[in-house]
Amino acid sequence: MIAAMMTLTMLGSLLGLLLSLAARFFQVPSDALREDIMELLPGVNCGQCGYPGCGGAADALVAGTAAPTLCPPGGAALARTLAAKLGRALDASGGPPLLAEIDESLCIGCAHCGKLCATDAIIGAPKQIHVVLQEACTGCGVCVEVCPTECLQLRPQKPTFDSWCWPKPALVGV
Amino acid sequence: MRLHDFRGGVHPPSQKHLSAGRPIESLPLPSRLYIPLQQHAGAPALPVVAVGQQVGKGELLARAQGATSAPLHAPSSGRIAAIGEFTAPHASGLPLPTIILETDGEERWAERESLPDPFELSPEEVARRVGAAGIVGMGGANFPAAVKLSKARQAGVHTLVINGAECEPYVTCDDQLMRERAGEIADGIAIMLHALQASHAVVAIENNKPEAVEAMSDACRHDARIEVLSLPSRYPAGSAKQLIQLLTGLETPAGGRGTDTGLLVHNVGTAYAAHRALRHDRPLISRIVTVSGGAVPEPRNLEVPIGALAADLLAYCGGVSDESARLLMGGPMMGQPLPGPQVPVIKGTNGILALTPDEIGEASEPSPCIRCGRCVEACPMGLLPLELSKRARGEDWEGIQALGLSDCMSCGSCAYVCPSHIPLPQYFAYARDMLAAQRREEQKARRTRELMEQRQARFERQERAKAEAAAQRRAAKKPRTAVLEADED
């Protein structure tokens, strides 16, 4: 009876010790920053950034090999949060955001573009004229490359009544 | 009632003598009226008429859409010429969806229903009728009046404040309305008191309008619930929050509403419109507009159908005498610079001004901030305009929000006193628009994420459906093979 108890106690403490040593020496380092960035990214692994999924993009961002503007679906809002998170300057020289537009006179309704769009922003049945829903388009440009007639182009957006902004006062020496 | 005080404020030259005391004249009916679908806070109205349709005066053109919205009515009889886009009365000069009405000059009213006594109706019904008449805040805020009335009744507002302060320089439309139509306004106030179930009303008028004070006092004498008060003239006493502070000494909390203090502020024009709607079944289709400014040869107070072009009004007042004049909708302190005279008058338009460069002080070039702090003294909201503008210039959006940009009401007092002529309100407008653009971007990013997830889910669903179909096919095949095997046996 006592021998059995002793054996089990010793076995338990030995295994416990082994486990705690294993946790210390074989630990896989998990990066808190990477986790945070994964939270921010869309997380659907569309691959538009050129990295293998959002995990790959997060690794590149942490390593500093990718710019905070890498994610087309995230847009300017994500670029800003990423830049703030990583403490990096945001290259704001991009100008106004470009969105895809279809020239109806050239569209042949091949329906190649709609299949690729990550946000389902292009609608239209085969052999019918297609149209881009501007409020869903992220301007990633995947559709532009597959269009056989080049009717899909990225164009800067004209301001509307709701999106118009007062210009910054241009003052010299103030 | 003992008056309190509000902080800051300025005394710009009132220039009201240009148009004050000029009787209200009707603008000759223009041949075309341009009625934007969005001329109120909230969702745009939804057209219910078709192109080519004949409409009577006062007929419904577009119905309210959603809880905060307002319907539009035909300002005159005629034919709907088009429903398209037309330049908005806004600094951007961008178009808004607009109903274009070709008037026939007959002024034929649409059929009207006979009206019950408004005091027999329930408060909810009075508010509903105010909303159905398309009445919005006539002081320039354009907030649907019915929404304000119902919300205030639920919040238990005890006092209705009728704002006749009209503190903007040049503008005299409320002054003239009170002088000429005080009886109708008093009746409108009684109707609004009924809709609010409030016990007391105060008509607040700046003391530079003694005739209006007298006329309103006379008209309200028979009703003990209505008190007429003369306020000291100081800009911006006519702002709702400052007016409440003047009357009660209570400050509206940051981010809060005026009704949090138990008071509701409505413009005199709104009370007049409520009287017209509830007593005569007339929707809001016209308003009084002051046409004034140094470049206007004959300043006037005009009763104008909604949708008349600023050019029509200016032409009736002798045209614009100075080529370099700046056109404004509203007063010179808070008004909207207009892209040109070809923009329509909307429900909240209280003035069309053509100001000469001298009046605006365009000659003075901005120079660096000397941190004199005069803007801080002038700010009625207790903000630090010099610090706010510094952050707007440096694009420090978090900093500017922390300093209370959202409490700024763009009254322009800071710019008025600035010895360096720094365009402070433009900086704040720029910052506000930039923050709004950021919010839109964030919303779009969230939406994108949703769309991508939905697409992913759809693919998974399709995969699953395919796999199930394949499994079914296999299952359907199996018994047959079993049968075949049985046959072979």
Automatic annotation (TrEMBL), chain A:
CC cofactor: [4Fe-4S] cluster
Hydrophobic: annotated segments: 1-23
Record key words, sorted: 4Fe-4S, Cell inner membrane, Cell membrane, Electron transport, Iron, Iron-sulfur, Membrane, Metal-binding, Repeat, Translocase, Transport
Iron-sulfur listed as a keyword: yes
Ranges where the 4Fe-4S domain occurs: 27-88
Similarity annotation: Belongs to the 4Fe4S bacterial-type ferredoxin family. RnfB subfamily.
PANTHER family found in the cross-reference section: ION-TRANSLOCATING OXIDOREDUCTASE COMPLEX SUBUNIT B (PTHR43560)
Name of the protein described by the UniProt record: Ion-translocating oxidoreductase complex subunit B
Protein species of origin: Candidatus Competibacter phosphatis
Lineage start: Bacteria, Pseudomonadati, Pseudomonadota, Gammaproteobacteria, Candidatus Competibacteraceae
Chain's gene name: rnfB
